[in-house]
Design goal:
The complex is a heterodimer of chains A (163) and B (125). Helix content of chain A is 75%, strand content 0%. Chain A is mainly α. Chain A has one domain: Arp2/3 complex 21 kDa subunit ARPC3, CATH 1.10.1760. Chain A is globular. In chain B, strand 1 and strand 2 form a beta hairpin. In chain B, the strands form two sheets. Chain B has a four-stranded antiparallel sheet, with no helix packed on it. A three-stranded antiparallel sheet of chain B has the order 3-4-5. Chain B has two domains: 30 residues; 93 residues, mini-chromosome maintenance (MCM) complex, domain 2 (Sandwich). Chain B has three helices and seven strands, in the order αβββββαββα. Chain B is an alpha+beta fold and 125 residues long. The radius of gyration of chain B is 18 Å and the shape is globular. The C terminus of chain B is likely disordered. Chains A and B meet through helix 4, helix 5 and helix 6 of A and helix 1, helix 2, strand 6 and strand 7 of B.
Chain lengths: 163, 125
């Protein structure tokens, strides 16, 4: 890894960390566990498109760990990690298929993030009725995915020269 | 945005709507007067409370936190809790079979159970 790459990755991790904090401060609470805007996913998406899968994956994991250590606890980190992992795989598959633009990839990420979280909750809390949240969570993941995807696309087209 | 993106977005939304409708219908047809709520903490059954009796119960979780469960008009909700995110408090009151309120920080779930048993009873009678 070149010095420039290390600096870039550090910068992006810091950005993702801050966005997670901003998200934590947002007073959006509709009473549904796992429903989030997913601001930090902007950074993951931009990283996937600009610095490659491997580093984007490292960034995503480090962010989850940092957020867990700072704002919540390790139990809650299980949910975030499962969401982040499934979301990352879905975005990877979506991008590799070359069928979607960044918006479509982001929608896949948003939807699978929520699916991952609720599945871990179903297992950890042994309450399979949580499956009834799935349609609502999928719809929320789609809508937030569209917003995040459009934002990420705008960022990607503007920072072309920086890399 | 590509055409495929739009197909994906609307495809998912229609699918979600379809499942939502199906699940809602199932829930409504599987709920009757014998419905009760099941409170679980970390997967372990804590207690059950019938939905036709109004109660107000403080549920202490092993980690020192609490949630106050209220049942009135056949609906259950969490009125108060000391969890950091208050997602459980903001959740609408639940009534239909399968509905649940979740408090992730306290590992607590409140789930409506009702109807399935009475169906079996009706078949054996």
């Amino acid at each position: 890894m070149k010095t420039k790459d290390i600096a870039m990755l550090g910068l992006l991790i810091a950005l993702a960390f801050v966005l997670s904090y901003v998200e934590y401060l947002l007073p959006i609470n509709i009473g549904i566990p796992g429903a989030k805007v997913g601001l930090a996913n902007i950074v993951t998406l931009v990283a996937i498109y600009k610095i490659g899968y491997k580093r984007a994956f490292a960034l995503s994991l480090i962010r989850v760990l940092l957020v867990a250590l700072t704002f919540s606890n390790m139990a809650m980190a299980m949910y975030s990690a499962a969401g982040a992992l499934l979301s990352f795989i879905a975005m990877l598959v979506g991008k590799s298929s070359k069928k979607f633009s960044i918006t479509g990839v982001s929608v896949l990420g948003g939807v699978f993030h929520n699916i991952g979280q609720i599945m871990v909750a179903m297992v950890l809390m042994e309450t399979r009725e949580l499956v009834f949240y799935l349609p609502v969570l999928i719809a929320i993941g789609t809508i937030s995915g569209v917003v995040i995807g459009i934002l990420s696309g705008m960022i990607c087209s503007r920072i072309k020269v920086a890399f | 945005m590509k055409k495929n993106d739009l197909i994906l977005i609307f495809g998912i939304l229609i699918l979600a709507l379809f499942f939502y409708g199906g699940m809602t219908l199932w829930q409504k047809s599987h709920t009757d007067d014998s419905a009760y709520v099941e409170v679980k903490i970390d997967g372990e059954l804590y207690g059950t409370y019938p939905l036709d009796e109004d109660i107000k119960e403080r549920i202490d979780s092993p980690d020192g936190g609490y949630n106050i469960l209220v049942i009135s008009d056949g609906k259950a909700s969490i009125e108060e809790a000391d969890c950091p995110d208050k997602i459980c408090v903001n959740h609408r009151a639940i009534h239909y079979s399968g509905d649940s309120v979740v408090c992730l920080p306290h590992k607590l779930t409140v789930t409506v159970v009702g109807g399935q048993d009475s169906e079996i009873d009706a078949a054996t009678n």
